[in-house]
Write a structure and sequence with these properties.
177 residues; alpha+beta; 4-stranded antiparallel sheet; 3 helices; 8 strands
Amino acid sequence: MNARKILAQSIIIFTMIFLVCIPLSHAQLDWWPLPPYNTLWPLWSPVLSPLNAAGIPVPIVNSLTPNTVLPVQPGLTWDPALKYPWLLYNTPSGLAFYDPFFGIDLWPPDYLTILGIPLPINLSSNWSTLAPTGTAWLSAVVPVANNAYYTAYPQFAPLATPAAFLGIPVLIPKLIP
C-alpha cells in the first residue's frame, strides 16, 4: 500500500512539475543569441523564426556576419544593453543596420569589433526574458528605417510602393509582428 501511495504522489509531483516547467520554458523563448556577436534574434516573430515540425521557433539565419543573407528585410537583432533593436538590411556592400540616432551604417557597429575581429556581447543571465519588441515601436521606426535604407540604396526602393518614401507602413511592419 505504501509503494502505491508513493508512486501516486510521485506521478502527481512529476505532472505538476511538467505542467509548470513546459509553459515557463516556452515563455522564455523570446530571443536567441546569434554567433559570433551574441546579438539576440527574435524567436517571437513567425516571419523571422518560423515554427519547425515540433512547433519550436527556429531562426532563419544562424550567424550574423557582414555577408549574412536575410530572406526577410528588415531583420531584427538586439544588444540587451541598448534600449532599441537594430533593423538589419542586405546591401551590395554587406549587411547594414539602421540606428534611430545615426541612420544606416554597415554591420557590425564599431564597438562590436576589434581589428576586424567580432566581439561577442556578454549577455546577462536574464537575456531570454527580454520582452519582444513592441509593435508600436516597430510601426514608428520601420518606415523611417526603410526610408533611410532606400535613400542610401535607391536601386532597392520598391517601384510600386511610393508610400514607403512617405513613412507610411506598407509591408515590413506586417512582416515583423
